[in-house]
Design goal:
By secondary structure, the protein is α/β, with parallel strands linked by helices. Helices cover 26% and strands 25% of the residues. The model has no long low-confidence stretch (mean pLDDT 97).
Length: 337
Amino acid sequence: MSEAMFYTPLDSNRVRCRLCQHFCRIDDGRRGLCGVRENRAGKLYSLVYGRAVSAGIDPIEKKPLFHLQPGSTSFSIATVGCNFTCRHCQNWQIAQYPQAHPGDIPGKGLPPEAVVAQARAAGCASISYTYTEPTVFFEYAYDTAKLATGAGIKNVFVSNGYISAEALAGISPYLDAANIDLKAFNDEFYRKICGAKLQPVLDTIRLHKKLGIWLEVTTLIIPGYNDDEADLRGIAEFIASVGSEIPWHVSAFYPTHKLLDAPHTSAKILRRARQIGKDAGLRYVYEGNIPGEGGENSYCYACGELLIERYGFSIRKNLISNGCCRHCAAVIDGVGM
């Protein structure tokens, strides 16, 4: 347990959490919406500091991040808890664990120093705070990221984009990249499916760009829920307005958790979404969760030549030379390309 960052004491031992865009007001003895930040006599504590519920080594492409040190590995950690209640969460067993098991916070002791040491020993180029929402274990991620930066290891958030502007600015000196889920382009979807609002996510995406954090965006396309072409066009045009160099990953949905009535996403839908992204002026649009369709490959935005050939999370061919296209010398956007 560690005292939390970003909270304001109120009267009667209540506190206002300033970590995420919910800005929970928490009574004495209660927890915030995430289930892992508890008010104890007017002080807010993180219950998951150093308590990893998952730790392992992943290809960076799994995050998905295709323009951050392609082909490298990332040491990935998570704690329980999330500030969303997505009906289609693929990691709901750990994300929603505190709500399903009141009072129980599982996880093995893995302090920041150990995370960095294990990442170095495994030859990982980065540490990813992922699987659940990293914002809710911010203090743990923050201390780890500071140590990792000093050790020459990059740091990655895989996030729903609901972090507060104050918290994002605080970690930005140590945060090299993020993949943010832009789950839909209408507020109703966010409210009914995720328990959140759209606008804060859009604001967070803009702030990442302003702070100089490399950003990629993912949209999981769910047939009948967020696959309307007008909404997909809205997402693509929004991303392009922030930066045409931001990669957009359009990924296939598979029924899970509480959202079992929608079918799998077809390759046809993903191809259409990819074309919408290209038409909006995005340089890089990728199709996810359907390996072997060619939509995972990187192509030069200037001349159209193949840059990186992928299958799933593996790289079969990398034709980028010193960060540039070998054919036309265009600079390819990203970090460590």
